[in-house]
Amino acid sequence: MADSKQTQQPSEEPDTTGQVEERVPVMQQILDNPFLLLFLGITIPTVFYILWGVMEIATVPISPLAR
Length: 67
Fold this sequence. Notes:
The chain is mainly α. The chain has helices spanning 4-7, 26-31, 34-58. The chain has a domain at 26-59. It is built from 3 helices and no strands. The protein is rod-shaped. The termini are far apart.
């Protein structure tokens, strides 16, 4: 099963030792998830290469032979 510390929302109430639990930062949650990192590592470059390719095709001048 998943680690309960990551999925459980920490409460702001003091625990048995009197200390308040700290919230896990969002960036740490992202970096702790290997499947999310894999997804982002494949998706982000793919989107950028597609956009780059579309921009390159859009900037190619029309051939004089096509007129």
